[in-house]
């Protein structure tokens, strides 16, 4: 083993644990150093090792698949010395945030790896946009991280009852997700948030102005531990730059804040949509037909829930919209799925006709 208990301790604030160490064993036997990737640019990356931040070349770990290139948050095995150093391998990721690009041939772009908490910042200074929250939730679930909704600027809500209603509205939209009102300016709730994210790596998601920077600063306190990225420029000497891409929080945990993540919007949500609408998925299991489209089918548990007021029609509309949007994104690259979708359209058309015929002729509701 080329790294000691001391170096293990040095990496712990960046999320190193027993499982990572176990997976790293074969690389340790080759004398490689473990380190967490802080940023990647132009074929090089900054890696935080127990020896400090090092610059390493990514030529050995640049596969054709854009989703497999090194990214912020990855755990890398780097050369212990030499110039240039190389990243020799990356440990398998536990979670990953992916953005589907807006180009015609939609190829994903990996934004951050090994994230435990997706903190979705939602401002209480503006009217709640539940549809937008659902989008961020689907994106978060899809990554494998656990979402957490932080309602920021709670100090701007005049009364406690009003705040309670807002929290309740968001909670209804976010089954299985904790909703936490916070005021960074008044210092309320920040300690609760700090305690939650202390156990892992977090990212802050949310639209511009949602209060992400303010929240990040509140979590970082005065103890800002900016990562010092060291770079060698043509042998002319060492230039030190500061990046805020990956930060150890004073209360424990790691915050990843990359420009790319700030802009996420379009996405391939897939199973994330199902998790974001888990109550609809659960209801659907009770529908008489296992391929029920919840439109006019007899024995539909989803429509029954809307009828008895336990499910808001808005939720079903959002769900449909996101499923459709997601399929369109995926279909850009997947011809087979495209064919499936066409079949589905035909089938639904046929079902629609059958349902109408049944309604007219055979007295179904
Ligand atoms: N009253 C109040 N204002 C806040 C609070 N948190 C943030 N703000 C204000 O909200 C505005 C936006 O906050 P930012 O932290 O810059 O938002 P952001 O999400 O980082 O925005 P981008 O950097 O554009 O992505 C700023 O004017 C903050 O001062 C809060 O707890 N209470
Ligand atoms: Zn149904």
What does this structure look like?
The chain is of the alpha/beta class and 365 residues long. It has 3 domains: 5-92, Nucleic acid-binding proteins (OB fold (Dihydrolipoamide Acetyltransferase, E2P), Beta Barrel), CATH 2.40.50.140; 98-262, Rossmann fold (3-Layer(aba) Sandwich); 277-362, Ribonucleotide Reductase Protein R1, domain 1. The protein is built from 12 helices and 15 strands. The strands form 4 sheets. It has a 6-stranded mixed sheet with strand order 10-9-8-11-15-14, sandwiched between helices. α11 (313-331) runs antiparallel to α12. The longest helix has 28 residues, at 335-362. It is globular. The model is unreliable at 223-242 and 350-365 (pLDDT under 50). Residues 105-264 form the CP-type G domain. GTP binds at residues 152-155, 206-214. This is Small ribosomal subunit biogenesis GTPase RsgA. InterPro entries: G_CP_dom, P-loop_NTPase, Ribosome_biogen_GTPase_RsgA, RsgA_GTPase_dom. Its main location: cytoplasm.
């Amino acid at each position: 083993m080329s790294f000691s208990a001391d170096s293990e301790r040095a990496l712990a604030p960046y999320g190193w644990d027993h499982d990572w160490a176990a997976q790293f064993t074969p690389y340790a036997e080759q004398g490689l150093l473990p380190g967490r990737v802080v940023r990647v640019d132009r074929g090089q990356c900054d890696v935080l090792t127990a020896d400090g931040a090092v610059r390493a070349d990514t030529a050995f770990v640049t596969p054709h698949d854009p989703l497999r290139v090194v990214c912020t948050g990855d755990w890398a095995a780097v050369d212990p010395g030499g110039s240039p150093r190389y990243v020799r391998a990356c440990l398998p990721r536990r979670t990953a945030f992916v953005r589907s690009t807006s180009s015609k041939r939609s190829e994903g772009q990996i934004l951050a790896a090994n994230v435990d908490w997706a903190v979705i910042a939602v401002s209480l200074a503006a009217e709640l946009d539940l549809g937008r929250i659902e989008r961020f939730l689907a994106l978060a679930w899809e990554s494998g991280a656990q979402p957490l909704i932080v309602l920021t600027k709670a100090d701007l809500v005049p009364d406690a009852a009003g705040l309670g209603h807002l929290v309740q509205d968001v909670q209804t939209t976010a089954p299985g997700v904790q909703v936490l009102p916070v005021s960074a300016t008044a210092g309320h709730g920040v300690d609760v948030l700090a305690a939650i994210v202390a156990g892992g790596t977090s990212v802050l998601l949310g639209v511009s102005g949602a209060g992400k920077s303010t929240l990040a600063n509140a979590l970082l306190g005065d103890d800002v531990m900016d990562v010092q990225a060291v770079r060698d420029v043509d042998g002319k000497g060492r230039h030190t730059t500061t990046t805020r891409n990956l930060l150890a929080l004073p209360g424990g945990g790691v915050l990843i804040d990359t420009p790319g993540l700030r802009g996420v919007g379009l996405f391939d949500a897939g199973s994330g949509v199902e998790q974001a609408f888990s109550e609809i998925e659960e209801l659907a299991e009770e529908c008489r037909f296992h391929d029920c489209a919840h439109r006019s089918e007899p024995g539909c548990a989803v429509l029954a829930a809307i009828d008895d007021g336990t499910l808001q029609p808005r939720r079903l509309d959002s769900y449909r919209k996101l499923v459709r949007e997601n399929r369109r994104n995926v279909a850009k690259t997947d011809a087979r799925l495209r064919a499936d979708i066409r079949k589905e359209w035909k089938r639904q058309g046929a079902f629609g006709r059958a349902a109408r015929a049944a309604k007219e002729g055979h007295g179904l509701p």
